[in-house]
Structure prediction request, 998 residues.
Amino acid sequence: MYTRVFHLSFFIWSCLSFVAFTVGSFQQNLKVRPYARDPLQDVVTWDEHSIFVNGERVLFFSGEFHAFRLPVPSLWLDILQKIRSLGFTGVSFYVDWALLEGKPGEYSAEGVFALEPLFEAASKAGIYLLARPGPYINAEVSGGGYPGWLQRVEGYLRTNATDYLATTENYMTSVLKSISNAQITNGGPVILVQPENEYSQAVSGIPFPNADYMEYVEDQFRKNGIVVPLISNDASPYGHNAPGQPAPVDIYGHDGYPLGFDCSNPSRWTSFNTNFRTLHLEQSPSTPYSIVEFQGGAFDPWGGVGFDKCLSLVNYEFERVYYKNNYGFGVTIYNLYMIFGGSNWGNLGHPGGYTSYDYGATIAEDRSVAREKYSEMKLQANFLVASPAYLTVTPGTPSTTQYTTSSDVYVTPLKSNETQFYVVRHSLFNSTEATTYKLRLDGSSSGNITVPQLGGSLTLNGRDSKIHVSDYDLGGTTLLYSTAEIFTWQKYGNGTVLVVYGGPGEQHELAVSQIGISSSEINASLDVLVNSTETSVIVNWLTSATAQYVTIGDLQVYIVDRNTAYNFWVIPSGNSLYTNTEDVNIVAKSGYLLRTANVTETSLDITGDLNATSPLWIVGGAPKNLKTLTFNGQEVEFSVDENGAISSNLTYIAPEFAVPTLKDLQWYYIDSLPEIQGDYDDDAWTLASFATTNNTSRALTTPTSLYASDYGYHAGSLIYRGKFTAKGNETTFKVETQGGTAYGASIFLDSSFLGSTVGNKSAASANATFALPQLGADEVHTFTILIDHMGLDEEWTVGSNTMRSPRGVLNYDLAGHDQSDVTWKLTGNLGGEDYVDHVRGPLNEGALYAERQGYHLPSPPVETWTKGLSPIDGISSAGVGFFTTSVDLDFPSGYDIPLSIRLPAINFTSTIRVQLYVNGWQFGKYVSNIGPQTQYPVPEGIWNYNGQNWLAVSLWALEAAGGSIASIELVASEAVQSGREQVQVVESPAWSQRAEAY
Ligand code: IPT
Prediction:
């Protein structure tokens, strides 16, 4: 394979250049560590172009995947294979501290929270990892990854405040040990690690960047065994992180979200980066150009427009224009955030988002790969990994005049030795016009020619971008130029296969150097014009939906349109990217997804997925003497054509299965707000006794702190009970509550409903004043206040203290009383930081009675509940009803049948808040008057597809008339016949009596 030869020579070259560049970097660039590492000692090294792994240049082409957002470890390989099948070499992941250290000092990363299965899946899929354990991660998670108990630490977060630093020790030591063990130096997949995240911006008045802090964090990494390079993710390569006050790492990286996060106008392409190369040269010329997060979709807030719109905003056209623009800057460490978003199950999200974290990403939340942006991504990544010259390019000066015949076309030249890449886009980057042009190959070995030479012009359609090449090495044969884009090329013992594609109806041309090939060795399909000269073979065609070919000696060129190219795959035989570089890559076309291949002398075993019967066409990599071809273990018939390509047909057999009709099931109901009953006993509740708070974000305005996190309650919902002895003169009760954006609250006096704050998409807190009925003197009364907890805010800006923005009751005034006349108790999840459910983690439960009792778990004690009342029946007064039913599933194996729960459309006049639990895992939070989410994917593995499941629903009606859920349905999306590994049902302990529960 070409890789060997190539890598060896570049390794030697890199060692020499390494020394030169690191020396140069001492004064030049303070954003990277000013000391040299020994490239001969280190497994992962770098120069100004790329990283090297074991001496070989590697393109780190990566997507962000948060395993914690898909709590079914046996599905992680499914995702990683789908990423690997894109041609990607890497995945970046965050670790969410809040899920692993619910109680200070007790780190627990077991079951769905364990990292090792992720490392194993990555090794198996052949994917390198970039580990990003924080301590701060942002990521639209509660507290930005900080556990709620950090609200009680006085020192500024993300600074070198001693008390803050101390809180990080246990987590960092533990998580870094896991990550260290998984480094490539220990045989694992981790090749890069990122300390902190976007340590880029602070409020004024706080010393920033705090070099001592970053040094401390980096020392934690090194002390705990991290030896691979440390990389940064600067959010502000635009100047905030002033040079001279750096947070130095080994490799400087930054992020980029040019379209931001407003998905409401999906065709809005407003900003575009043209200066990344300049910034790179200013900031870190000695390290590979690294974009550690680039927009792969967008998050969407409560009341947002929904992820369909985000998908349109960051779609395949965005990928073409914006990503190719980044290649024009020579990026070789590149991570798309997110490649698969997953779900904010179990209260893990921040208040700026809802349960779905689909993100409009390449891979949908239900793990399907039917989005066009998946296919487009596959074309791009495969091209770059097949182009070793890309790893040593130097971007030249872009021009609108030099390289084409049209000034509407903007070209960035990238040069590496002989090879030149021409990154082509519209001069007006967001133009929707089609522009015709010809390409000038100035300085190529073909001379100063203008192409196409044999007729026609090139077309650049609106919102498109292309990469043309010249003097591109096909493993010994020179592709003199190609205006058609390369999908892949592979060299085999018996010849070379090249697959090129063009947009629909486009004219293209390529030329191959003539190396003693006689005209009898040139063959082409009818629609292709071939002109063979002394020095070159020129091929010109109009792209059509029918695949064309041309054979030039032992080079087999397949010519397809983009839609056809979408169905091509490059699948390595064997399964490890980094231990088996000698392996053959299969090039094949097939419908939905190809995952793995295994080639022997006479057999080829392929795994993949089908959503319809699909032809399989293998154009490269099959053994010459193929006897047995299997797909997902089943032998299939095949034929071989004159070019050696294999044809077969993969039959899709529609599965037979029934999706239960939820409304017809046997439901059980129990009241879940017994707190408003006269005889309710809150003896076991936490007394709000702290006269002070460490929470520095807001001074107390109550005699004792009513901040939930002061008492260990950080997620889900909160209930407060305030007792007072009436004087008979009470007229009003005024209360200020805070639950985070889109929260709601209901307030009761004894069993009388006073009213609710129904919430809206922008309010995190609210004041409400209620008229009180005439109370008798000396009577004891109780306020009960239920507050939705939408997660803790992030701390994106250092010193903002937003993460500490409290949840709970902020202030109150009972007319005619001193505040101290009211004695408050509160609860959140049972046990608070001594949370009960160590399988589902510290955030999965809130304060609701049913949750405290564990009734959301499988097999609750329904014998004593009301039988036959469903969420569709609802409840007839303000309060909380809790419903459960058992759902039997019996789905056929060999299929991937994503399920989701569908609730009614958003209705701004309805005011219910619903939580959905499948086998105890909270997988949906629905707010009827805010939205936007109404459909909740729940993964297989949380569901047991062959057995009994428990679906529980909490229904909080915020209005006096009560409320109901007009409909609740279980919906199956497209059933895919799948070659993925068997899903292991996640351990989901059933209900058992909770002795301490109240
Ligand atoms: C960037 C964060 O690094 C990442 O954690 C996530 O929050 C992402 O944004 C948005 O989804 S911060 C960037 C907006 C400057």
